[in-house]
Input
Amino acid sequence: MAITAADVNKLRTSTGAGMMDCKKALEQTNGDFEAAIDFLRKKGQKVAANRADRDAKEGVVLAKTTADGKKGFIIKLTSETDFVAKNADFIKFASDILDLAVNTTPADVEGLKSQKLGGATLADALDEQVAKIGEKIDVTEYIMMEGDSVVAYNHAGNRIGVLVVLNQAATENTNNAGKDAAMQIAAMNPIGVDNADVPAETIEREIAIAKEQIRAEGKPEEMVEKISLGKLNKFYKENTLLNQDFVKDPSKSVKKMLNDASADLTITKFKRIALGE
Output
């Protein structure tokens, strides 16, 4: 059958694919509109595969909690260029994916991609975006956390998302303290909640480095162990969340800030996801 310009434009409006791609899809499917959409989806999958070697280091990171504040979610939707990442439609797509995660609570990225978004699976929707935009588009990270209360924080520019799990039910004070802690995490990127979170191999490496530095300074061997432990404590203070100086008020630690907000308030775990990491 003859393919008209109106047919091509209708398919282009519906799918966002290029004019020539739409014309070819309709020709290949004898003008069957639904079959042409499937053809374009398959083309999107092929495009996605062909672009698998491309670096997708731009994009957006978004965080959100459920209405009851018991669960939190972060998704990272990546693109190849900052131009695409800042596009309003791309940010809306990321927001829709995040809402999908909040509403369906999948266990992992693959589970999220199997959920339906706008009548198709998210995996198909991603392929359609690849075909439409011409860049590698993918959900490269997804995390869900739950606890007595969870606070989500989106850093300016949507390049960092943070979840903080607190050991107490949500109140105005605990939520504010949780947000302050999340901002601290975004800015300072601690390696764990406290000393117990630091991997044994990291501790061993820090002690070994400290001992070499101390010996290089000519300190007596009998002082090496004591001084190295002092350096390790400094490492904990600088790199673990509860021990860090609170950025908004360096006269107190993050742990003290939390306790000031509510007695015995603490953070049981957190997650920070950023672009380029």
